[in-house]
Amino acid sequence: MALYLLVFSPTGGTKKAAEALLKGFDERFKTIDFFKQADFSALSFQKDDVCLVAAPSFGGRLPQLFAKRLQTLHGNGARAVPVVVYGNRAYEDTLLEISDLLTAAGFVYCAGVAAVAEHSIFRQFAAGRPDADDRAELLHFGEEIQQKLQSGDMKPPVIPGNRPYKALKENPMKPQGTDACISCGTCAKECPAGAIPKEMPRMTDPALCISCMRCIAVCPVGARKNDDTLYNATLERLTPLCEGRKENELFL
Q: What backbone phi and psi angles, to 5 degrees, belong to 245?
């Protein structure tokens, strides 16, 4: 049996939550980074493999770039644990969407997890999460999932969400480079959608950008940002929706 982490983590929060969960399984696992621009269609798993598949929620849906990459996999009956990570608002249909895609790709999911991490745009929401309490709880979730796997129980849990999923809504925030840009090209290299031209890294192709905020997170001089007016208006709208501490959830 091999243990895999299949992860799409634009600003690091999803990966942190997933790794905390995996500590309840085993410290030894192989990470497959679905954030890279690559062809994943050759990935094929064995029936006794376990794949933890983690992604963020973008407005209550799965990032469609990641969804397309999941569709190319060959599960071959491998066991899977879908994980959604969200920034303290709501994950809505995202976990169900991951579960459905895994089933269609030939995986058998036997558990599910919804975890909270620091918001990728508005860092004040769920700031510092997953924190120590989250990590302890996620480790415990991992132990419970491992016990279910060892028992041979393959019954899929009831995953919250709706079919059809909520309509996809494009995020209008498309970060651009400022005058502080030093043209190092880090953002262009790290963009999963190829939306930033290598020869003009201050620019962003809005038709390709998935609003993941990776470019802002990796810029070494803080030279990429969103439009201030749009940012402030969205912040005002989201603030009452992101108040309080949302809790992690385990579905067995």
A: -105, 110
pTM higher than 0.85, yes or no? yes
Q: CA 38, CA 34: separation in Å to the nearest integer?
A: 8
Class of residue 14 by CB neighbours under 10 A (exposed 0-12, middle 13-18, buried 19+): buried
Q: Where are the beta strands (DSSP E) in 34-147?
A: 50-56, 79-86, 108-109, 112-116
Pick out the chain residues at pLDDT < 70: none
Q: Taking CA 221 as the corner, what is the angle to CA 215 and CA 224, rounded to the nearest 5 degrees? A: 40
State residue 131's pLDDT score: 98
Give the contacts of 52 (CB within 8 A, at least 6 positions apart).
3, 4, 5, 6, 18, 21, 22, 25, 29, 80, 81, 83
Structure tokens at 157: 């849990």
**DSSP secondary structure of 2-40:** -EEEEE--SSSHHHHHHHHHHTTT-S--EEEETTSS---
Residues 34-89 pLDDT 10s: 988 788 999 999 999 999 999 999 999 999 999 999 999 999 999 999 999 999 99
